[in-house]
Amino acid sequence: MATTLIDEDGVLGLADAPSRNMNMIEAINDALDIMLSHDPSVVIMGEDVGYFGGVFRATAHLQEKHGKNRVFDTPISECGIIGAAVGMGAYGLRPVPEIQFADYIYPGLDQLISEAARLRYRSAGEFIAPMTVRSPFGGGIFGGQTHSQSPEAIFTHVSGLKTVIPSTPFDAKGLLIASIEDNDPVIFFEPKRIYNGPFSGYYDKPVEPWKNHPDSKVPEGYYAIPLGKARTVREGDALTILTYGTMVHVSAAVAKEKGVDAEIIDLRTLVPLDIDAIEASVEKTGRCLIVHEATRTSGFGAELSALVQERCFYHLEAPVERVTGFDTPYPHSLEWAYFPGPVRIGEAIDKILEA
Amino acid sequence: MADTPNGRGKAGHNRPELHFHVPEPKFRPGDAVDFSYIKVSEPGAQARPDEMCDPIETQSLVNDLVRVLGDDNRAHGPWDPKLDPDTLRKMLETMALTRAFDERMYRGQRQGKTSFYMKCTGEEATSVAAAMALANDDMVFPSYRQQGILIARGYPLVEMINQIYSNRGDKLKGRQLPIMYSSRPHSFFTISGNLATQTPQAVGWAMASAMRGDSRIAATWVGEGSTAEGDFHAACLFAAVYNAPVILNVVNNQWAISSFSGFAGGERATFAARGLGYGIASLRVDGNDALAVYAATQWAADRARSNGGPTLIEHFSYRAEGHSTSDDPSQYRSAQERSEWPLGDPIMRLKDHLIAIGEWDEERQEALDLACAEKVKAATKDAEKNGVLGHGMHHPFHTMFEDVFEELPWHLEEQAAQAIRERKIKWPQR
């Protein structure tokens, strides 16, 4: 993989850096630990993130190491968490609030949409909200409708917010460090289905741990992956698959199983979007499939589909297809009927290739 | 839902019929106003607990009214801040300047120089006296009716007017609705049009100040109507949980556009009492008594600065004018309310106090009012050199796309190019 890292001392190749295997939780914890050490303005707050270390353990031992002034628990009040983070940002801190589940973020939306996202604009740069809101999102863990949602399109629709979604431990660490350093508010959604291992989409197969995956080799120390740059997971000529989060792994597994020479683009950042990578790939393959777990109508796939149509129309040899979750709440017992897994993706690939 | 066709529960049950309560103000247009139901406490009769007291020791003060200035125009009791005459005159001058500014800006809006304006007539003390009791670098998170803070902190009037006109001199680049000021150098947070959002932000700022071992505190202002928002309750909760060095000011001016304070729960409990419920020291203050406002703010600031934690102050006042230039209060409340308001006018009361103690007279007041009007007029002329709203003297088109993010992403660059292209078609002469 040709990824380059921006190191404190310049540019560093992945292969050169000392590294160790991490799952996504460990990579996130490592990024937070490094940023707490590097930058005294970084503070972490959220429900259960302090002494306990977070319900998913993402903040384990950070309070112990960095103290209660830097890592602390909050009341169960997302409005208060985000509102206080806006004030802390105005003071000059760089807060990293955790919203325990993306499904819980809605009480904080006014503070995110009307406040954090608009401070720089409305004050002409006098005040900014350099916060990174971390939140586990997505389904596949039997979380039912209130612990499985993928609300990223709500945030991509808001001018002034950046939306970042990693798909590997390596990316999670580098993108989280870049997000915390970014001077704009960033929504950092962590696909919780792949916290502990990549997921092929076959819910009935044993879970594979991250340690067998090349991208679980995470460099130690500081590195940042620039926001707005997509990652080519796999090069191919038959069709382009635009995807992010958990669905990167599901899409790759389906393409491999079907023996399709797909080019898979992991968007990594939805806003700002790496439009150059999208255009280059679709112009090459002439066929485009968009895969996300979120509901279909007005999902981010609609935006991607429109952009591809507007910018690559004369290169297209087939209609752009979307594979998404259904437009229903995430059902508990029928989770695997809902999930946009191998069957739905496989059918869409066939349709595009037959066109 | 209904078990029986008439919806009154199961047949045979003898339960009373329920009644739905919708609050209704005492007086509507045309009604004779009698405010005798408002309990006006005796000036000087309220105890002043120690600044570091347990919040529960403020219990008697959440239903009382801290008052200093009496009908004899003298200062009374333990809350008298005992300010020197120069400070009192400065307070009077700042309040008078704020009122003169409001008068002229209101007329400017009526003359079509801008789209919108909001006066604070009758509520000047709640911002001016409070600001004077704070340090100038204490961070304030105001609502939209605290122009008195900016004026008290010496923000140039011409900058305020540039903002109101959204002209090419507007430091906010014409992006914000008039009066939504921002000035970091004056420790004045950017005003939001979304209500009460500033309250948890002020608490967050105060938490940060405490985390850093700073000595500055935060203060926020919110209308009584906006305390209904969840943000206010989050603010109270976070302030209490983290014992944050913050002052939560609730300006109870009785009216939220056309909704009286009953729609924010004012019929059931005072707004100060809400603070006590969270374990926050809380004071209910005569908001038209500048000395009481000053004293309460000083008490709360001392408490916050000494790590005693937050204070909620309800400023009991009256919105003498409409909500904004878009509002006509004669449609929903009695015009007599203003003249019958039992707590008088804050500027008149402070003026009368200064005269009573031999430090002011009517001639000087007349000269002050004239000087304030002249000062505002001069600033208005200066600002008009930068244009008024809708006359083309705005910031360049490209600024519309700047500051959405720190750097312009490709999609905004593309949209900026389109706006500039459209400009050549829509306004070819420019």
From TrEMBL, chain B:
Q: Could you tell me where the Basic and acidic residues compositional bias lies?
A: 14-24
GO molecular function terms here? branched-chain 2-oxo acid dehydrogenase activity
**CDD domains linked to this entry:** TPP_E1_PDC_ADC_BCADC
Keyword Oxidoreductase included in the entry's annotation: yes
Annotated stretches, region: Disordered? 1-24, 319-338
**InterPro entries hit by this protein:** Alpha-ketoacid_DH_E1_comp, DH_E1, Oxoisoval_DH_suAlpha_N_dom, THDP-binding
GO BP term, pick one: branched-chain amino acid catabolic process
Write down the Gene3D superfamilies for this protein, in alphabetical order.
Answer: 3.40.50.970
Q: Which UniProt keywords apply?
A: Oxidoreductase, Thiamine pyrophosphate
- Specify whether Membrane is a keyword of the entry: no
Q: What is its EC number?
A: 1.2.4.4
Q: Which reaction does it catalyse?
A: N(6)-[(R)-lipoyl]-L-lysyl-[protein] + 3-methyl-2-oxobutanoate + H(+) = N(6)-[(R)-S(8)-2-methylpropanoyldihydrolipoyl]-L-lysyl-[protein] + CO2
Top-tier EC class:
oxidoreductase
The UniProt record lists the Dehydrogenase E1 component domain at: 94-387
Query: Required co-factor?
Result: thiamine diphosphate
Q: Which residues form the 2-oxoisovalerate dehydrogenase E1 alpha subunit N-terminal domain?
A: 16-55
Q: What does this protein do?
A: The branched-chain alpha-keto dehydrogenase complex catalyzes the overall conversion of alpha-keto acids to acyl-CoA and CO(2). It contains multiple copies of three enzymatic components: branched-chain alpha-keto acid decarboxylase (E1), lipoamide acyltransferase (E2) and lipoamide dehydrogenase (E3).
Q: Can you tell me which family this protein belongs to? A: Belongs to the BCKDHA family.
The molecule here is called 2-oxoisovalerate dehydrogenase subunit alpha
